[in-house]
């Protein structure tokens, strides 16, 4: 009887020992599948995924600087958009600004609405927070829904340091992440969101935030700004 119990115990230990390897293998396969869903929007060398807003080519002032996309000449006509359109997505990117710098990333941008991407696309604000409002958090701070909703906290890094950003859009649900922290979540087009829009500079622009698909746009006319490690995953 004792030998039988010892045998059973040994089999149980063997089965238990095998489980982590199987679990690790399954987790590794899941991680690989998840990684395969991501698409790089910049390879550090070419602008194949981008063009100027309402243009066929990239504006000449955008250059590659040490593996990053760099808006070197901030002037009119420097806003750029993805060649593809996106509806539901998870978009990650790194950005940095010069001191007192200002830029933004917009999404669901419809070029037929007019001369600027902000006529339709809500904006994830990029800002050197330390240079404005004594660094206080407000609806124009970095990672805000620009001029509409403020982030919950300030986690921006100093000028010329890289920041990690993430925008997640699933239907009406929107999340803004900055440096690993979700600093803003809202329902696009909800009663609360539209009330905030009505109190913003966009109240006189009826097309603002009305689209449910479109290009991702980067503002290039407000100052020197760099981007790298841009990648996106469709959630459709």
Report what the structure shows.
This protein has 236 residues and is of the alpha+beta class. The protein folds into two domains: 1-36; 40-234, Sandwich (Jelly Rolls), CATH 2.60.120.560. It contains two helices and 13 strands; from the N terminus they run αβββββββββββαββ. Strands 1, 3, 4, 6, 9, 10, 11 and 13 form an eight-stranded antiparallel beta sheet that branches. The chain has a five-stranded antiparallel beta sheet with strand order 2-5-12-7-8, with no helix packed on it. A hairpin with a 2-residue loop joins strand 10 and strand 11 (181-187).
Looking at this protein, list some descriptive labels:
about 240 residues; alpha+beta; Jelly Rolls; eight-stranded antiparallel beta sheet; five-stranded antiparallel beta sheet; 13 strands; globular
Q: Kindly state the mean pLDDT as a whole number?
A: 89
The proportion of residues in beta strands is 25-35%
Q: Give the helices and strands as they follow along the chain.
A: HEEEEEEEEEEEHEE
Structural classification: alpha+beta
- Total helical elements: 2
Question: Assembly type of the shown chains?
Answer: single chain
Indicate the CATH architecture of the largest domain. Sandwich
Per CATH, the superfamily of the largest domain is: Exo-inulinase, domain 1
Radius of gyration, whole Å: 23 Å
- The rough form would be described as globular
Number of distinct beta strands: 13
CATH class of the largest domain, named Mainly Beta
Helix share bin = 10-25%
Largest sheet: 8 strands, antiparallel
The stretches of 5 or more residues where confidence is low (pLDDT under 50) are 4-9
Taken together, the total number of domains comes to 2
Could you tell me the CATH topology label of the largest domain.
Answer: Jelly Rolls
Could you tell me how far the N terminus lies from the C terminus, measured between alpha carbons in angstroms?
59 Å
């Amino acid at each position: 009887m004792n030998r039988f119990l010892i045998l059973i115990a040994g089999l149980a230990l063997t089965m238990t020992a095998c489980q982590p390897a199987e679990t690790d293998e399954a987790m590794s396969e899941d991680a690989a599948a998840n990684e395969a869903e991501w698409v790089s929007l910049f390879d550090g060398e070419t602008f194949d995924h981008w063009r100027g807003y309402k243009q066929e080519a990239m504006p000449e002032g955008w250059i590659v600087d040490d593996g990053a996309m760099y808006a070197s000449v901030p002037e009119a006509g420097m806003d750029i958009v993805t060649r593809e359109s996106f509806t539901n997505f998870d978009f990650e990117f790194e950005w940095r600004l010069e001191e007192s710098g200002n830029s933004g990333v917009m999404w669901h941008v419809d070029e037929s609405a007019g001369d600027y991407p902000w006529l339709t696309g809500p904006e994830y604000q990029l800002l050197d927070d330390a240079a404005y409002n004594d660094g206080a958090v407000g609806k124009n701070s970095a990672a805000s829904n620009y001029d509409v909703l403020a982030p919950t906290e300030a986690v921006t890094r100093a000028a010329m340091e890289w920041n990690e950003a993430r925008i997640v859009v699933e239907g009406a649900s929107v999340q803004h992440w900055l440096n690993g922290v979700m600093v803003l979540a809202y329902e696009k087009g909800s009663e609360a969101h539209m009330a905030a829009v009505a109190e913003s500079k966009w109240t006189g622009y009826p097309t603002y935030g009305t689209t449910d698909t479109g290009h991702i746009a980067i503002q290039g006319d407000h100052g020197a700004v760099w981007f790298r490690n841009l990648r996106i995953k469709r959630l459709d």
